[in-house]
Each structure stands twice: as C-alpha cells, then as structure tokens.
Design a protein that fits this description.
The chain has 19 helices and 5 strands. The chain is of the alpha/beta class. The chain has a 5-stranded parallel β-sheet. It is globular. The termini are far apart.
Length: 358
C-alpha cells in the first residue's frame, strides 16, 4: 500500500510532457534554521526521492556538524569562480524519469555577491523552472547572532559596531548580508515574483521544516533524526573571548576545536546571558538603518513590528561592560585545557592571555 501511494504521489508531482522540471534553491538567509532544515532533509533523502524530490549529494559540505548536510561546496566553488555544479545536478534531474523536482540548500546563496555569480551563470538554469526560498528575521537579531557565530569559523576579531555599519571597511561586505531588498531583487531577476517564496522566520520557526518543504509540493511526513545539528550561539563574553583568541595566528581546524571548547565552557556561566555587545536602546536606534527594508517587505505580506523588529522579544542581555566576565572565561578556558591536556589549544589561550595583559 505504501508503494502504491508513493507511485501515486510521484505521478502527481511528475511534470506533464513538455513541462520543465523544477529546481528549488533554499538560499537561507543566515541564522534562520538552515542547518536544522538541511540535516532533516538529508536524513530523509530516500523518502523525498520516493516522491520525486531530489536532494543531490553533489556539492554537499565537508564532514563537520555545520557543513555536512548543506550544499556548501557547491556555493563556495561557484562564488569563487572555480566551478559550477548546477549543470550536473540539472542533468541528473532531467535524466531520471522518476524525479520531478530538485532541492539545493545553502545559506550562502543569500549573499549578494554569490547571487551575482548565479546571475552570471543564469543560462545553466534554462532547462528547469527555477525557484528560490528565502527566510528573513529581524535585522539586529540576525546581526547579533551572526556576529557571535562568525568568530567561530573565520579569523574574525572586529567589534560589533564595525560589522553593523556600512561605513567601515569590515562592515561594507557584511552589511550587504543585512540588505534584504538587495537580496530579494537579486533573486527576483533570476526567478520572477511567482517563483520566489519568502517567509518570516518568526512565523514559521515552530514548524520550520514543513514550511520550507511545502513550496516544492512534497506532501509526505519527514522523520526527525534522533540527533540534529544546530549552530550554538555563544554568550557575549565567551564570543568576545573567541575574538580575543582570533588575534593569535592559527589555522581554521584549530579554531573550530577552540570554538567547541568554548561551547562547553559557556555552560558553566549561565549568568553570562545578562551581557550583550549593545543595549536594547542602542539596538532599537540601529534598527532605523533598515527602515527601507521593512517598507519593501510590507509588499510581501510582512508585518514590520511582528516580523522584522526586536521590540519585547529582546533576548540579548543589557550589560555591556563585560571585561571582567571575559577574563573570567579566559581563566576558566586555560584551566579546562590544562585539565584536558590539549597543548596546542592551551598554547593559543596562554598567548592570548599574555597579549591581553600587555
């Protein structure tokens, strides 16, 4: 009976003769449940395929919790001009009569610079009907969460004010990730309005996976893995400690190991939740920077106050003087690494401690 139902669903999803198959690109944005969604979809590849929905292995990320399930390598290689794997994916979709729809997921496809690369390669999408899925959360909520995560993956040590303001050297690049109108207009040029599916993170986060899979036409149940990977948001003092460590010169694999140690360390200090890089009052003032984005998204059914502003949902703490807390965390990290006998990470932590004292 299950097999018969599967065949019926495939026949419903399968394009009529002469119709193009569909390719959906779930492009993020950042910090909108993308890692969780990718993990669940990856774990349900067989169930998806049984209904004609193809989540390709091509372009999946490296074997780390953050990257394994997303098409990160596809996006990075395309953005760098190294290679474009979309033709391979589209050919596999076209050649299999049991497939009707493809789904690619990587939040880097919401970066304007990467969208420009997609536009340059737009001819490769001619054989399919291209769709995009975008999710947006309040600008300052995204900025604070992204700021604390960014330092765990790249050698990033700038202050929050440098990230959020487009007038600074660091901010010019990252501020584009907060320009929702530019992101949407870039995708509109590729898909047209009908094929651009835009969601409010606040509205869908309670049922994120089903909301994001719905535009593809998939109607089956999705099993949630027993263990799902999600990015950990560090507290403000511990994230600041990571940026202090980043001032030392070391390679990315060691940085990821240090970030994992800091996530463990953070559990020892629940009171660190009272700290933030900026106050709620300062955040609300900065929100005015994004007023034009909020006006633009009203045309897509967004409610500015409920969907795109902090208001009473502020969860980032109020105390901004956290030097003592950072030092407390730093001392605890050194003790933790000494106890665990991890000399390479301990050397970085000690060097950063000495540099900070001088």
């Amino acid at each position: 009976m299950i097999t018969a139902l599967s065949k019926k669903l495939r026949s419903i999803m399968r394009p009529l003769s002469g119709q193009k198959k569909k390719l959906f690109i779930h492009a993020g944005t950042y910090k909108t449940g993308t890692t969780y969604f990718q993990h669940v979809v990856y774990q349900n590849i067989k169930a998806l395929r049984a209904q004609g929905l193809y989540y390709p292995i091509t372009g999946l990320g490296i074997n780390t919790p953050h990257n394994k399930y997303a098409h990160r390598l596809l996006g990075i290689r395309l953005a760098s001009g190294h290679s474009n794997a979309f033709p391979t994916i589209i050919k596999a979709l076209e050649d299999d009569p049991d497939l009707s729809t493809g789904l690619v997921s990587y939040e880097g496809f919401a970066r304007p610079a990467t969208i420009e690369k997609l536009q340059a390669e737009a001819a490769c999408f001619t054989p399919v009907e291209l769709h995009a899925i975008l999710v947006f959360r309040p600008h300052l909520d995204l900025a604070l969460s992204l700021y604390r995560e960014l330092c765990q993956h790249v050698g990033f040590s700038a202050r929050f004010e440098e990230l959020i303001k487009p007038t600074t050297a660091t901010g010019r690049g990252w501020h584009r990730s907060l320009n929702y109108q530019e992101i949407m207009e870039g995708w509109l040029a590729l898909t047209g309005r009908t094929n651009l599916h835009v969601f409010s993170y606040r509205r869908i986060k309670a049922d994120l996976v089903n909301a994001l899979i719905a535009p593809t036409g998939y109607g089956g149940a999705l099993e949630t893995p027993e263990r799902t990977e999600q990015n950990k948001t560090l507290s403000a003092p511990v994230a600041a400690l990571m940026r202090r460590l980043n001032q030392q010169k070391f390679k990315a694999p060691l940085r990821h190991k240090l970030a994992a140690e800091l996530a463990i360390l953070d559990r020892q200090f629940p009171d660190f939740e009272r700290f933030c890089e900026i106050t709620q009052k300062q955040a609300k003032a900065l929100e005015e920077t994004f007023a034009s984005d909020r006006d633009y998204l009203k045309n897509w059914g967004f409610n500015a106050e409920k969907d795109l502003m902090l208001n009473d949902s502020w969860r980032w703490g109020q105390e901004t003087n956290m030097d003592a807390a950072i030092n407390q965390a730093h001392e605890a990290l050194i003790a933790q690494l000494e106890d665990e006998k991890k000399p390479k990470m301990l050397a970085v932590a000690n060097a950063a401690w000495l540099a900070n004292k001088t």
